[in-house]
Specification:
Helix content: 25-40%
Number of strands: 43
Shape: globular
Radius of gyration: 35 Å
Low-confidence stretches: 1-14, 105-110, 901-917
Distance between the termini: 85 Å
Largest sheet: 23 strands, parallel
């Protein structure tokens, strides 16, 4: 019995062991079987998740584009999510390729079970990744407010430094310096140069008086409160939401109070403007806010309760003579003084009149000057209300000197509001539609002709440079005189743009051109009588409906603009406009475009940014179309085949961000338009297009590629509106490339590669040259380096290089084969390196040949293997570097290698520096940011800091090992620190747990420009390198109160003085 028991026990033990072994063996087998069983369901699931991710990415990209259009800065977390999404999409694409190969053999006995099991497992794993990734893409906000433009860069080509005007600017400066003066009035007659003077004031004020913000806004004769508020808000970097007047004013006021000192210039006031209603805080509300107003009338300044008024006096005789000679193109000599004095005497003392008469008489014989003026005076006298007689005379004389085409363009520019910048594109369309150039029927030829006309108008000084590049405007007085002349001479022009009067009450039977832009038009008459009307501008109005019969009695209409209105439907009477040449419906709520059909004479059709799902029926019959724009139509479902190819006269085609499913190869059952249709447009000179099918890059298409002057080609990549007029954005690029792609690459200025695989470096592309390239962006590409020796000489025009999330990249510039200096990167201004975990060095090769003398901005982030950025040789070449940011580089020990032979862990050619006693590095650096570089113990050595005469902002954040900001090799003397960092304005030290001192020793730095000191979470920093008189302009000290109270001070006076500036606030 004992033996049985023993055997039973052994048997039971053996059974349990066997069961245990079998169980352990079965678990992994079971998993593998489950992978096979669930193969189809796993693939179905990952495809569903991939579609969800694609939809979410599309929504995020749309929000990013909207933010980008507003000039807002996209948040880093959004950009990172987008890049991670691209990586996931790459993995899913790779998986699909493997699945397709595995499914090649369909007989069950020939299936590759091992591959299926592996792919099923990968699909399940990737599904989990997507499930974790999707929630992170639901952002509360995706961007920071737009960084406002610096008004100090405003162009002032019209400004001439005359003594009279310089005296006015000096007077304004003196008044601004007095703390008691909060509102300053500047008044002078129309045309005396107030606007030009204010632009110059903006550029000069910062040289003598510091303001945190300087704003300039034109008010005009018909002030629009909402526009004024929006312009101020835009200049300070945000948007005012809502329509409630007081709420908008309160929002603006609250925002302006964030800055201690603000200068607001309100130009061209005609009546009192309630600053509180606008939302401008002043007086006790905001003691640091000062307002300068300009007006023609001193009474307006008084009504604004100005503390001091400054009159712009009439120009002195010497100034008038000097101004006339400059504008008339006369040499700086006394040869023409007598004739010039006579002209100036006859034309008064206003700068605007002198400028125009100078332009009118430019390049004309002197003996004709007085005859021209006398002839104009003897002709029928023109009187324009509110405009001085001499201005009317000079504008009329200048206008009469113009050719008829130039007169028409000047009249056209008067159809827009006074503050509007008329673009060259608008002038070109006007030239085409109104047949300004007989015999010229192509947009390209009109553009060339219009360039000459604009040059003539600018030379006459009747057309002025606008506030934006490529845009133009007219002076208010000039505008009024031109409108009056045009109406008097039978042109019947009615331009009420910006007057906010709604539809005019006057009879319009003889009116030929009617502009009601920004005119508060909320309703339209049922059937207005306008038989001679050829141009109608109704854009930028809160208009929702157009009466059905509205267009019935304006059948002569050729130019119609309904952009930026809220209309969703077009009236039936639109079909009456058989002579229509240009129809613009940009950014409307239009859903149905079916009524836009059979306009045989239509040459320009713009439907950009509408909500249409289908293109107009009969579009293929509009064979005179030269410009077609239906970009940014996100709801467009498709383009019918064989439509685009019938528009054989098309010169400009804009279809970006609307439709991307172009067929690459024609088929009998073709559902959508083919790319070959676009290629068939022989006259095409402008093409903005998005193609989803990557195979287009390797498919040959004969087409108008050599003729393209502007293009934006996006292939399988997200569509971006880039400022550059010659750009390509290519995803999944591989060799070989089609010839049409190579041809455009050689002309491209802005180039983006995304997820390009198996490309060792860019030089391996079979392209003859990329000499035109100015901006190059690489995202998630598999490559070892960006530029090799062969490509380096061919990128001499490159200004901007971004390399992001290229995980295998080891070097940026690999130039070991070049031994002597050659042209390359001489124009590089911006270098961004992000997410490069294997990057070992920026520059591999001979550093002495590097040509980075124009680099201004550099950012390095998430480059975990970099030990330092520059060798001493390289650092000495960065004369123009202004902004440097180094973020999350975990291995970085120093910015400039202490050993010239060691850069980023790679050995480079050494150089004898013994003949350079004090090398200068980064002489023009203005902003330095270091964050999360956890191997750095010190930011910069004293020898480098001593050359930082332009540095304005120094920020060090979350560097765990940093013990001091500036390191000196020995004792530091007062003399060495006397002129160190003379322009430093902001010093921010956050989350530096080991920081003990700013610099070795107990020297007090003299920082005459320092205004703000931020210290947060630096518990071991017990002493600041400051004395009572070393920081005379200090305004803010921010940090933790407990830290501030424990500080050790050199003297009690310094503590008391800085305590009054201290606030416990973390920003």
């Amino acid at each position: 019995m004992g033996s049985d028991c023993c055997l039973s026990t052994l048997s039971g033990t053996a059974g349990s062991v066997t069961a245990c072994i079998l169980e352990r063996l079965w678990s992994p087998i079971e998993r593998q079987v489950i992978y096979l069983v669930r193969y189809r369901s796993n693939l179905k699931t990952i495809r569903e998740r991939a579609r969800e991710l694609e939809a979410l990415k599309s929504d995020v990209l749309k929000s990013m584009k909207d933010a980008d259009d507003k000039g807002e800065e996209i948040k880093a977390e959004v950009l990172n999510w987008h890049v991670e999404t691209i990586q996931i999409e790459m993995d899913v694409e790779w998986l699909e390729e493997k699945i397709e190969k595995t499914n090649g053999c369909c007989h069950i006995w020939h299936l590759d079970w091992r591959s299926r099991r592996r792919l099923s497992r990968l699909a399940m794993k990737k599904t989990i990744d997507i499930d974790e990734h999707l929630p992170r893409g639901k952002f509360d906000s995706i961007s920071f407010p737009a960084r406002p433009a610096d008004l100090r860069s405003l162009p002032t080509p019209d400004y001439v430094p005359l003594e009279t005007l310089l005296n006015v600017i000096n007077s304004i400066m003196d008044v601004l310096k007095d703390e008691k003066n909060k509102i300053i009035g500047v008044h002078g007659s129309g045309g005396i140069g107030k606007t030009t003077l204010m632009k110059q004031l903006v550029k000069q004020v910062d040289k003598e008086i510091h303001f945190d913000k300087v704003l300039l806004v034109r008010v005009t004769q018909t002030p629009n409160l909402r526009r004024i508020q929006d312009e101020i808000a835009k200049l300070v970097g945000f948007e005012i939401e809502g329509d409630v007047e007081y709420q908008r004013a309160a929002t603006l006021s609250q925002r302006l109070k964030r800055w201690q000192t603000v200068l607001i210039i309100l130009d061209d006031l005609w009546e009192k403007l309630d600053l509180a209603t606008v939302g401008i805080p002043y007086g006790e509300e905001h003691k640091g806010c000062k307002v300068v107003i300009t007006s023609r009338f001193e009474d307006v300044c008084n009504k604004m309760e100005s503390n001091k008024n400054i009159q712009i006096e009439e120009l002195s005789e010497l100034d008038r003579l000097k101004l006339f000679k400059i504008k008339a193109g006369l040499p700086d000599s006394n040869a023409f003084d007598r004739a010039s004095e006579e002209v100036v005497r006859r034309c008064g003392k206003l700068p605007n009149a002198i400028v125009i008469i100078g332009g009118a008489l430019r390049n004309k014989p002197v003996n004709e000057w007085n005859d021209a003026i006398k002839k104009e005076r003897d002709s029928a006298t023109i009187t324009v209300e509110g405009i001085p007689e001499e201005v009317v005379l000079c504008v009329t004389l200048g206008y009469d000197q113009l050719k008829e085409v130039a007169k028409s363009c000047l009249q056209f520019s008067c159809l827009f509001p006074p503050y509007y910048n008329v673009s060259m594109e608008e002038l070109v369309i006007h030239g085409l539609v109104d047949r300004l150039f007989p015999g010229v029927e192509s947009l390209g030829e009109v553009w060339i002709k219009m360039n000459s006309v604009v040059a003539e108008l600018k030379s006459s000084n009747l057309l002025l440079e606008g506030d934006r590049e490529g845009c133009y405007r007219t002076h208010d007085d000039t505008r009024k005189v031109i409108k009056f002349i045009a109406s008097e001479r039978g042109n019947n022009l009615m331009a009420e743009a910006g007057l906010r009067k709604g539809w005019p009450e006057e009879e319009l039977q003889k009116c030929q051109k009617l502009s009601l832009m920004y005119s508060n038009v909320t309703w339209l008459p049922d059937q207005p009588e306008c038989p001679q009307l050829i141009t109608l501008f109704l854009q930028n109005n809160l208009l929702e409906d157009i009466p059905i019969r509205f267009f019935e009695r304006m059948r002569a209409l050729t130019f119609l603009d309904l952009s930026y209105t809220s209309i969703s439907l077009l009236p039936l009477s639109l079909q009456c406009l058989e002579k229509l040449h240009s129809l613009r419906l940009e950014n409307t709520h239009l859903r149905d475009a079916s009524l836009i059909k059979e306009f045989q004479e239509l040459e320009v059709l713009i439907l950009r940014g509408s909500s249409i799902e289908h293109l107009p029926k009969g579009l293929e019959t509009m064979t005179n179309l030269k410009l077609l724009d239906f970009s940014n139509n996100l709801f467009l479902k498709g383009i019918p085949p064989n439509l685009i190819s019938k528009l054989s006269l098309l010169e400009e085609l804009y279809v970006g961000n609307s439709f991307g499913d172009w067929e690459v190869e024609g088929t009998t059952n073709q559902q959508n338009a083919g790319f070959f249709e676009v290629a068939s447009l022989a006259r095409l000179t402008v093409l903005y297009i998005h193609v989803k099918n990557t195979s287009v890059l390797s498919t040959e298409f004969d087409g108008p590629w050599k003729n393209l002057k502007r293009f934006r080609i996006c292939v399988n990549d997200d569509y971006w509106d880039i400022a550059s007029t010659k750009s390509m954005h290519l995803k999944n690029l591989t060799n070989p490339l089609a010839n049409w792609v190579k041809l455009l690459l050689e002309k491209t200025e802005y180039l983006t590669f995304t997820r390009s695989r198996d490309l060792e470096d860019v030089g391996k592309l079979d392209v003859e040259g990329i000499n035109q390239l100015t901006c190059f962006h690489l995202r998630a590409c598999s490559m070892d380096r960006v530029f090799s020796s062969s490509l380096y000489p061919r990128v001499q025009n490159l200004e901007e290089l971004h390399v992001e999330y290229c995980y295998s990249l080891k070097e940026v510039f690999y130039l070991e084969e070049i031994e002597e200096e050659r042209s390359g990167l001489t124009r590089l201004k911006e270098l961004i390196l992000v997410g490069l975990p294997k990057l070992m060095s920026l520059w591999k090769g001979n550093h002495s040949i590097a040509q980075l003398e124009n680099l201004k901005m550099m950012k390095v982030k998430d480059c975990g293997k970099l030990r330092n950025l520059f060798s001493k040789t390289l650092a000495q070449k960065l004369h123009t570097l202004e902004h440097l940011a180094i973020l999350k580089c975990g291995s970085l020990e120093e910015i400039v290698s202490n050993d010239n032979a060691e850069v980023g862990g790679e050995t480079v050619q050494q150089m004898n520096l013994s003949n350079i006693p004090t090398p200068l590095f980064f002489q023009n650096l203005q902003k330095l940011i270091i964050s999360k570089c956890n191997k750095m113990e010190s930011v910069l050595p004293l020898t480098i800091v001593q050359g930082q005469n332009q540095l304005e902002e120094l920020t060090v954040i979350s560097c765990n090992q940093v013990e001091r900001i500036i390191t000196a090799s020995g004792e530091v003397s007062e003399a060495e620190c006397q002129n160190m960092l003379p322009k430093l304005k902001i010093l921010a030290l956050n989350d530096l747990r080991k920081l003990e001192t700013v610099c070795n020793g107990e020297i007090a730095f003299r920082w005459p420009s320092l205004q703000e000191l931020h210290v947060w979470d630096c518990p071991n920093l017990k002493r600041l390198p400051l004395a009572s008189r070393s920081v005379p302009n200090m305004r803010k000290v921010r940090g933790q109160l407990s830290w501030y109270e424990d500080l050790q001070w050199k003297d009690e006076y310094t503590k008391i003085r800085l305590q009054s500036l201290f606030t416990e606030e973390y920003t």
